[in-house]
Amino acid sequence: MSKTLAESGTGTLGKAMDVLEVVASAKSPLRFKDLLATVDQPRGTLHRQITNLIDEGLLQVNADHSYALGLRLLKFASNAWAGNRFREIAEPHLQMLHEKVGETIHLGVLQGVEVIYLDKVESRQSVRMHSQIGNASPAFCTGVGKAAMSLLSDEELEERIARVRFHTYTPNTLRDADAFRREIADIREKGYALDREEHEAGIHCIAAPIASLERSFYAGISITAPVYRISMDQLEDWADDVRHAAAAIMDDMKVKLGPRG
Q1: Distance CA 118, CA 108 (A)
Q2: Domain identity same for 28 and 120
Q3: CATH number at residue 32
Q4: On the CB side of 159, how many CA atoms lie within 13 Å of its CA?
Q5: CB atoms < 10 A from the CB of 37, how many?
Q6: In the sheet where 136-138 sits, what is the strand order?
Q7: Which of 62, 70, 105, 112 has the most other CB atoms within 10 Å of its CB?
């Protein structure tokens, strides 16, 4: 990366990342005026950030003068995917769990107050989930996210709860921090998390937490299914299966990644 983005330190890099995050998260292409209204940066600063990002190949300009993520990011994503040892270690366990239950299996890692999906094995059934590898979802209302957050220390949990925006996605979404704390206490006791149509109506899941040996990252594995086909009782019948898969992944990480895994 050229010194235009790097030499000014994390302040400049953070501003550039803010722009990329907004463009990546937008449901439709954004123009400069849209970014100006969304990103908390002065007009001149924002213009410089956009220019630098275009020069670096991290943003591109569409024919209608809106912005899209640049093709250089595909290279970064490809390299990150190929080099992700955690995903590689987990993959056979995702496949085995899928063979047993026949429903969609997700693997995700906690990043801040979101969960990033690293891998997915599609259901054998005709109706499938619309989740995508690489997508981020709020941790507080997803099975994988809640499972991963249950591994945090009380201090770290409170720090992250303070950053959560408790948006109501469905009638079942947890409404506030107290409800979320009670949910985490229940997950810690049972060893698994449930998403009771909290993020997407008609979809529920059961998930188990995964931690690296030194707890350098927290993750989760889930079984996800439509409510019309799989009941909540059936999901909970799979609790041992999803917990065993999570435990097997952690055991493999100990062997293949060693004490730094």
Answers
A1: 5
A2: no
A3: 1.10.10.10
A4: 6
A5: 8
A6: 136-138, 114-121, 104-111, 218-226, 203-211, 193-195
A7: 105
